Amino acid sequence: MCIVGNKISIVEAGALEPIISFLKSENPNLREYATASLLTLSVSPTNKPIISSCGAIPLLVNTLKDGSPQAKVDAVTALSNLSTHPENLSIILETNAMPFIVNLLNTCRKSSKIAEKCCALIESLVGYEEGRTALTSEEGGVLAVVEVLENGTPQSREHAVGALLRMCESDRCKYREPILREGVIPGLLELTVQGTPKSQPKARTLLQLLRESPYSRPEVEPDTLQNIVCDIISQIDGDDQSGKAKKMLAEMVQVSMEQSLRHLQQRALVCTPSDMPITSCASEVSSK
């Protein structure tokens, strides 16, 4: 029997009832073992709605609030697993889990697996207005996501930019300022050139939404990334963030020029026969 099949069989055999009772125990060790068990069982898509129907989600949130360090890690991972079942998201929101998720995110390394799970859960929760309000209401909530966008793993950065993009797309007027205020621009600029295939377009779209006007420029003035960024920089308060953004933009231009030069050199090498002088090929390329 496959591993996932074993997890389903364990639940079908009635294991959830004692696990839930251990999760309610006053004994911290029992709660930690129970949380780890739910983490393992929550990997199965079949088990996700069954686990939530047993009342496990509020208990996992309590563990996220008051559990041991390891129990908190297991609890946020289990909640992240359970959140992929859409009906479970509303239950997680009802438990007011956001402050405890943000607290864990603030206390862990932004490049850690824990930060990845926290951001994945936040990205799911901000798909709802209650989640967006909870994140912006929590002191340091948006900043924690921005810090992951800057310093997280590639997967964490995908979740972070995805969360911020969801917020801005839902209500640009409401969430543009809270996001800009936390110094997101340098990290977004870096993502547009060094992010994963998923995070790059999200970063570009978010940059467009963060500018003063969300509408495209006239055709005579193309809506290039450079124009978008310059437009945003002109509105940023604070020399530190503006300076970082300008420096990042200059570096992006330099990288773009170097890439273009390498491309021209490669074309020259490809089109140059072995018995033809390089100067002849160079003139041929320049005439195209």
Automatic annotation (TrEMBL):
Domain U-box: 13-214
UniProt keyword annotations, A-Z: Repeat, Ubl conjugation pathway
Ranges of the ARM repeats in the UniProt entry: 14-56, 55-97, 96-140
Family matches, as SUPFAM superfamilies: ARM repeat (SSF48371)
Record field: transmembrane: none
InterPro entries linked: ARM-like, ARM-type_fold, ARM_PUB, Armadillo
Name of this chain's protein: U-box domain-containing protein
Biological source species: Vigna mungo (Black gram)
